[in-house]
Design brief:
Blueprint (H helix, E strand, L loop, with lengths): L1 H98 L3 H18 L6 H23 L2 E4 L34 E4 L2 E4 L3
Antiparallel strand pairs: 1-2, 2-3
Helix pairs in contact: 2-3
């Protein structure tokens, strides 16, 4: 009887040990499974950091491209404004050149007009001289009409208030019958080409 009890205890103890041996591997397997899962968690977190870096890099690149585009647009606008100014200046210069294209020729003709004035101021005592002066007067008239068509015009002087833009003073005289600052005598006629003085009156 006592032997049987000991035997039963021994059997129960062996069964208990066997049960623990079966449980231990399962615990190890669970631990191993948890250990295997931890790298997966680490690996899952890594793509988030990489994605954030890529987004930051794309944002920086976009800002740089936007700045370059803005700089190029400003450069284009400046070039366009400069080109418009150049066209306006060129057009204005062209108009001025066309407007005063005959200035050099007319300036050379002024001494000829002066000589006609001097010739016609002479007095004649014979019919032959009077006929000659009549011919000179006709030539002068034709020449004046030609230069007038080109825009040449005389500057009024005698009896006009002195204007330094149109008149050149040679001397000053007192005349009680005239107001101060009035041109009393003209020594040489002045001329304008359209709105430009090519020779002031003296």
């Amino acid at each position: 009887m006592e032997r049987e009890q000991r035997r039963n205890r021994f059997v129960e103890k062996n069964d208990s040990l066997k049960a623990e041996e079966h449980v231990a591997p399962e615990a190890v397997e669970v631990k191993d499974a948890e250990a295997e899962q931890s790298p997966e968690l680490v690996d899952a977190e890594a793509p988030d950091e990489s994605s954030s870096e890529e987004e930051s890099s794309i944002t920086d690149e976009a800002e740089e491209l936007r700045a370059q585009l803005e700089a190029e647009q400003n450069k284009y606008l400046r070039l366009l404004a400069d080109f418009d100014n150049f066209k306006r200046r060129t057009q204005k210069d062209k108009e001025i050149a066309n407007k005063f294209r005959s200035q050099s020729l007319l300036a050379d003709i002024l001494p000829v007009l002066d000589n006609f004035e001097r010739a016609l101021s002479l007095t004649t005592s014979s019919e032959e001289s009077a006929s000659l002066l009549k011919g000179v007067e006709m030539v002068q008239k034709s020449l004046i009409e030609a230069v007038n068509r080109e825009g040449l015009a005389e500057i009024k002087a005698v009896g006009e208030p002195f204007d330094p833009n149109f008149h050149q003073a040679v001397m000053q005289e007192k005349d009680e019958s005239a107001e101060a600052g009035i041109v009393l005598q003209e020594l040489q006629k002045g001329y304008m080409l359209k709105d430009r003085v090519i020779r002031p009156a003296m």
